[in-house]
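ok here's Sorbitol PTS, EIIC, seq below lol
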Amino acid sequence: MKIITDLASGFMGLFQSGGKTFVGWMSSIIPVVLLLLVLMNAIIAFIGDKRMAKLAKASSKNPVTRYLILPFVSAFMLGNPMAHSMGRFLPEYYKPSWYAAIAQFCHTSNGVFPHINPSEYFIWLGIAQGVQKLGLNTMDLAVRYLLVGLVMNFIGGWITDFTTAYVCKQQGITLSKTVDLDG
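and the structure came out like this:
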């Protein structure tokens, strides 16, 4: 009987600990994330959908803007998963590479910009807690993660361009490299 009560106590303790963590977040990270989301939605509303579409079209012209700048702007302004939707403005040929770059960026920016991917913030908090126990600055880690992520996401997106070209050639498929915003 003691084993059953110990298991039940441990099980309830898990949820009590989770509740304490959640209450802590309610007074720390959740208000920050909420206010960042409000700010980003206000900026998008101010800029407008058509201007956002023009930004994506202009960004599709070279790999640096397509896989470095546009993913950063999209993730920062739209957050995950909405940042992926910016790919709809890109030509079909670049969509696989766009997905590769943006999907990774929504993870690598979490330490500096928690509003981008709040659903995975608990992973960052776990890593940050270990770094804090070592007496190190978590913002240093967050900035390094962001910078390495920007470079690696760019490389991943650009390499995906080459794999897309290879698969298109292999399958005899031609994907458009232009986009029509009116159609």
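fwiw The chain has a mean pLDDT of 83. kinda neat tbh
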